[in-house]
Amino acid sequence: MGSQDKSPNNTTQRVKVYRLNEDGKWDDQGTGHVTVDYLERSEDLGLFVIDEEDNETLLLHRISSDDIYRKQEDTIISWRDPEFSTELALSFQETTGCSYIWDHICSLQRNMHFNSLASETFNNINSELRELPPVELSSLPSILKIVESGIADQLRVTELILNDQDFFRKLMELFRICEDLENIDGLHLIFKIVRGIILLNSAQIFEKIFGDELIMDIMGCLEYDPQGPLTHHRNFLKEHVIFKEVVPIKDPVVISKIHQTYRVGYLKDVILPRALDEGIVGNLNSIIHSNNAIIISLLKDDSAFIKDLFARMKVPTISIESKRTVVDFLREFCTLSKSLQMVHQHRLFRDLVSEGIFDIIADVLQSEDYKLVLTGTDILVLFQSLDGNILRSYVSRQEGALLGLMVKHMLTDYGDNMHCQFFEILRSLLDSPPGAQRENIVEIFYEKHLNQFVDALSSCQSNSDGPGSKSDSSLGGLGSQRSVKPEILLNTCDLLCFCVVQHPYRIKCDFLLNDVIAKVLYLTKRREKYLVVAAIRFVRALVSRSDEHLMNHVVKNNLFKPIIDAFVANGDRYNLLNSAVLELFEYIRKENLKILLRYLVDTFWDQLAKFETLSSIHALKVKYEQSLENVGTTSTGTLLDQRKRLDERALEKEEEDYFNEDSDEEDSASAHSAGIKRGKPQPPILVNGSAPENPSPRSGGLVDYDDDEDDEDYRPPPKKTTGSSDEDGGLAEFPLKRKLVPKEDSEAKRLQLSPKGLKPRAVFCSTLKDGGLSSKKQATENVPPSVNQNSITPNPEKGLSETAEVAKHTVKDEVSSKSCNDGLDDTTDTRSLGDERPLLSPKSSPEMAVKGS
Q: Compositional bias (Acidic residues) at which positions (predicted)?
């Protein structure tokens, strides 16, 4: 055992040794290392300080069980050595070393104290002592030793005290005798005994000493602290502490518990605040909590008391002082109700509401007394924190009368940050669970009270702008309003941000109609940077909705200008304003909000260009350029794809109709094809003279001939082509293919692609195969009026078959009235259509071209 005890104490700590000389100055005795070890030829432990240079002993001190050691700051331990009658001190180099030695000294003192108590015969409680010594002046030291030994055997000492029914009565009688005789030594011993009994931390003992019979004498015993001045606690409790009754309380149990609760709290907080440990403080708080629950339970069950209380408050002639007393009692009553179980607490609050407590609070909030308004606000906070549904139900039923008072006081500077309390209550009301109550409250707030917040924000413009500025005239005299406290403006902006997040369906209407966004941005001109950041935070909340209507409103009214101006004015300073604006830009870029992205870069890039070194600004510009490229590529690709699909679909339908036509139409098509064969058409040539690489299938004839391959390789001489062009006035460019149709054919093709699904393609395909491209006049005569007016529309009742029949008859009429030589329009009409189709073959003679025309 000895080796185990010594091993942890061999750790050396570097210290300086000081001794107090006769002149009251500290003399440095040297520097060494301190250890705690056993003294030679003894079972006692001591402090050893060995010089670090020559290993000589600088200090040897036997650790005493007396309370002589003091720890100063974190690195000094000092004491008065009783053997040499001198003051010594150790100054440690490190705080850890000082703490280690101090804890070791305290542990050794406790062990020595317990060992000394166990060695005395009268302290052998478990085996020999059966009862406490008689309570007499001569036996007080013995009683004190037994009580202080309770740390070692707490339960046994508590049992001995409780078994002696007359112990406390006799002790208090002895206290009064000593006080009358002014026996200070006896009073000091009684103080230590009473303090030791309290430190036993026994609930049964607390119940006895805190009773009405003993509590005042216990307070008197605790007045005679030997280490402090005499304090007259009893005089203070009797004369200075006044018990007020708003309404007379008839139950004596309630009155007794009220007094006991106050006195226990006084003992805990005033008389013995430093002597009590956490366990004792916890037990005393439990007594207070239990007493509060008993008091509230008894009072809430007393219906006569509750009715008298509210009746007194509703008296019209009540004075301000009486009203303040009643409201203070209501606040304390509601506060103490937290001691009840949750079910009973809800029941109590609902009973208070039925008695009209909210009507009283509404009356209080209309008072001009600042303290009275503050007390009423505390009661509202208590109701809101316990059960918000109770307050929401009342506000909803009363159509917002109480809500209007809260809005008014939130915008009023009362000091003590009272507006913050109203802000929390309003936010809680607006953040209620979905239901009829919430909808009603939100409706009342936006219709009746939103303008009050907007007016408060509007007053910022007159404060931020100089006299005679443009904004002063636009506000219409708002500059005459008194300035609003910046903290109130901050809460207002935060509340509007909350509304944006919680009520997105309301901001489109109410915010835009009242021009809330622009008025919030007045804050960007304030000197207070936190208000500027609050305005940016509000815009950030709006942008997060990703609402296109809101974004268009922002762009239309150029609402980002105040933000950009504030950002540019901030310069290169890295602060919260800078971070807020950059975070806004980052969100716009990452969410790819194209409307705002183009608006920012197109409008403000001249101002933002100097900040392009910032990664967020540079990324914003890159994203803008990418969006422009994507828009161009997408639009071009989409147009080409649409044209390609339309051409392919038209080709497929035409070929399908060709093989499905009647024999009469085939004969007409053969005659017309023979006429075209004589012309020997060549591969198609575009108007600009370049031939396409892959000619369309529609550029060839409808029937394959043996000499088509020879015609494909034919290239006309340049001179002949030039001569033909000069001689005939551009007849070489005359289109000959069936795709060049007059207006009625174009209308028919448009109807072919209509979403109705009608397919009157037989009309146009037969016309094309016969070469019967009539002039505009012929089309007007032969085609029915519905075709000329671009209105070939199926009748849903008749169906598609009847529509197709009408179209077929129209085709036959056209074919019968035309010849193969009349199948071409004049050059002017063909060019007006802008169709890029094959030209006349260069082999064709001018006469053929003329005849064809």
A: 653-668, 704-713
Span 309-338, average pLDDT: 87
Per-residue burial over 557-583, b if 16 or more Cβ lie within 10 Å, else e, is eebbebbbebbeeeeeeeeebbebbbe
| AA letter at 211 | G
Q: Which residues pair with 88 in a beta bridge?
A: 19, 79
3-state secondary structure of 67: coil
Tell me the pTM: 0.53
Give the pLDDT confidence score for residue 541 in this predicted structure: 92
Burial 319-348 (b: 16+ CB within 10 A, else e): eeeebbbbbbbbbebbebbebbeeeebbeb
Provide φ and ψ at 717, rounded to 5°: -65, 145
At 671, list the tokens: 């005659």
CA within 13 Å, CB half, 134: 3
Evaluate if residue 638 carries a pLDDT over 60: no
pLDDT higher than 50, residue 700: no
Concatenated DSSP letters of 248-291 = ----HHHHHHHHHHHHHHHIIIIISTTT--HHHHHHHHHHHHHH
Quote the DSSP letter at residue 310. H
Q: Taking the CB of residue 836, how many other CB atoms lie within 10 A of it?
A: 16
Q: Could you tell me if 699 and 737 are in contact, meaning their C-beta atoms sit under 8 angstroms apart?
A: yes
Torsional class of 182: left (φ above 0), alpha (ψ -120 to 50), beta (otherwise)? left
The kind and range of the H/E element at 500 are helix 486-502
Give φ, ψ of 707 to 5 degrees.
-95, 15
Identify whether the C-beta of residue 233 lies closer than 8 Å to the C-beta of residue 215: no
Q: Is the pLDDT of residue 113 over 90?
A: no
Structure confidence at residue 215 (pLDDT): 92
Cα–Cα distance, 178 to 190 (Å, whole number): 9
Q: Show the CA angle centred on residue 578, arms to residues 575 and 582, nearest 5°.
A: 140
Look at residues 432, 566, 547 and name the one whose alpha carbon lies nearest to residue 500.
547
129's tokens = 């002592």
3-state secondary structure of 91: strand
Whole-number Å distance between alpha carbons of 137 and 578? 78
- All residues at 6 or more sequence positions from 272 whose CB lies less than 8 Å from its CB, including other chains: 195, 198, 222
pLDDT digits (tens, 9 = 90+) for 494-532: 999 988 888 888 777 778 777 888 889 999 998 899 999
Q: Among 498, 339, 490, which Cα is nearest to 429's?
A: 498
H-helix or E-strand spanning residue 417: none
HSE of 755, CA atoms in CB hemisphere, 13 A: 0
Instruction: Retrieve residue 226's tokens.
Output: 């030997």
